[in-house]
Amino acid sequence: KVLVVVAEATEEIEAVATIDVLRRAGAEVTVASVANEKQVTCSRGVVLVADVLIGEVAEKEFDCIVCPGGMPGAQHLADCPTLSSLLTKHAEMKKIIAAICAAPAVVLVPLGLMEKVEGTCHPAFADKLPNGCSEERVVVSNEGKLVTSRGPGSAIEFALTLVSLLFGKEKMEGVRGPMLVQ
Question: Which residue ranges run through the membrane (predicted)?
């Protein structure tokens, strides 16, 4: 079970690529809006309709929570107390947290989730990461429980990394091949 959170001005490539790749792998993906309605307009004008509002899943458990980037979308995620609580509990349970683009710096850093771990984010936010910003496209740290990535161009690689962590490398290769991803 994977939770992908979206907000007004979320980066649509990062959200949709992740949702799509995870669903291709057979993951049960729930898309939750942190806005007051399920429909959100992303950073480039693409309209997404979430499955639920964040409050509807506040008490549920997931194997992975994904925070896409985009600004001010990532800030809207950071400003959501329900999501902050979910992420904190998720980290305490040692489950996978994944964030891409601005989200590692804007959403995870204020919650202390980037302390003592290697990570990456969009270069515009690199100075916000407490342990420096890796130039790798995708960084897996905290014994596989934290996945961070750079931005829209690394979104499919980011999602395939999540498939590998959740379902294994063989499943990831089975998804990657038909997508023609190198």
Answer: none
